[in-house]
Design a protein that fits this description.
Elements (H helix, E strand, L loop, with lengths): L3 H11 L5 H13 L1 H7 L4 H28 L14 H10 L6 H17 L3 E5 L4 E5 L11 H29 L13 H8 L2 H13 L9 E5 L5 H9 L4 E5 L3 E6 L11 H11 E10 L14 H13 L12 H11 L12 E2 L4 E5 L6
Parallel strand pairs: 3-4, 3-5, 5-6
Antiparallel strand pairs: 1-2, 6-8, 7-8
């Protein structure tokens, strides 16, 4: 049963949405994500509309882009309609077609691409006790259509991220054929990163994470921005909390803001990095993160198919950037944070993450010395 005051909050957001998809989506979001709803309601009408349309529209652009890559590279020709193939057999056939699927990076790219093709029903999965096998779907139906107005809206508001993922997706074939990754964080690549990071949906995500941290706008409050790069996170911090004391390092405080750096932490160092972050936080301090996590096969956390598609495409495309370790399993991440000592004390829910694993806020217990 939804309480009257909560229903009023939800209707306040819903009545601002003119598009039927936005209207229905807002109802479902409000009913299933009460803590996230309270944060969303602190944004203005334009920001809310922009963020919701990003969820609805960018996933269709991502689907179209990765399907085009699949067609151009003739990926589906390695699958049969009758003979199921294991992952290793798929890699073997790709290698015969000119690819060089060796090493963890390229094998992970192929695994992500297979998960995407299964998600959009281009291939089917046959599982038994010993292995998973895949066959070609006989009549796949994939709808990713956008109206002209929707496409214009996307390129106006999310053009930086759309271009970034087009460039990286197009280069993925070269990486799969043995070439080097496309670019890194050196100055010569600053322009494409700048356009990517200034995209509106990323700005909303950074602000959402900061608001979820429950930062106190006071000169006594200190926050550390790790991996500030071009400084967009710093600008968001100062816009929302102009009185606080901000520190930044590019990769003993009240809060630490670590926007989107998690997938670039080397896997073997990940636990140690978060141990050090926990160490420098003050007791009661908060860590805020913004990062996808790899969709769970059971679909208990990331349930929406469009959301899963955009995560698969992101994980696949950004593999062409040097240092990319990939999105992690959510349950393993929660386990790591618990082992380190992070809690959810003081938050509305007892979850470490919000919005199905996109935004994270974790607290160092206040009773520690």
């Amino acid at each position: 049963m939804v309480k009257a005051e909560n229903l009023k909050e939800k209707l306040q957001l819903i009545k601002l949405q003119k598009n039927p998809d936005l209207y229905v989506g807002s109802i479902l979001f409000g009913l299933t994500h009460p803590e996230e709803m309270k944060i969303v309601l602190t944004f203005n009408e334009r920001e809310r509309e922009m963020a919701w349309k990003a969820t609805l529209l960018l996933s269709r652009i991502a689907t179209k882009s990765l399907l085009r890559f699949t067609e151009n590279q003739k990926i589906l020709t390695v699958f049969d309609e009758q003979n199921p193939l294991t992952f290793e057999e798929i890699n073997g056939r790709l290698n015969k077609n000119g690819f060089k699927i060796h090493g963890e990076l390229r094998r992970n790219m192929v695994a992500t691409l297979i998960d995407f093709l299964y998600e959009v029903k281009m291939i089917q999965k046959i599982s038994d006790e010993n292995s998973e096998k895949f066959i070609l779907s006989k009549s796949p139906i994939v709808d990713y259509s956008l109206s002209k107005e929707e496409e214009e809206y996307c390129h106006k508001n999310y053009g930086g991220s759309i271009n970034f993922f087009e460039v990286t997706t197009n280069h993925a074939s070269n990486v799969l054929k043995g070439e080097k990754q496309l670019f890194n964080f050196e100055k010569k690549h600053a322009d494409i990163w700048e356009k990517f990071l200034e995209s509106k949906e990323l700005e909303f995500g950074r602000k959402f994470t900061l608001k979820a941290m429950r930062i106190k706008n006071s000169s006594d409050y200190k926050i550390l921005d790790i991996g500030y790069a071009r400084g967009y996170g710093l600008l968001n911090i100062l816009e929302l909390f102009p009185e606080i004391n901000v520190w930044a390092i590019d990769f003993t405080d009240d809060g630490i803001f670590f926007a989107a750096g998690d997938p670039f932490i080397p896997i073997e160092l990940r636990h140690k990095v978060y141990e050090d972050i926990f160490r420098i936080l003050k007791p009661g301090g908060t860590l805020g993160l913004m990062s996808w996590h790899y969709p769970d096969k059971e679909q208990k956390i990331v349930k929406d198919s469009w959301m899963r598609r955009i995560i698969y495409r992101h994980n696949f495309a950004e593999s062409v950037v040097e240092g990319w370790s990939g999105f992690h399993n959510l349950d393993e991440t929660v386990k790591m944070f618990k082992e380190i000592g992070f809690t959810t004390e003081g938050f509305q829910s007892n979850k470490y993450y919000l919005y199905d694993g996109v935004f994270w806020r974790l607290r160092k217990p206040a009773n520690l010395p």
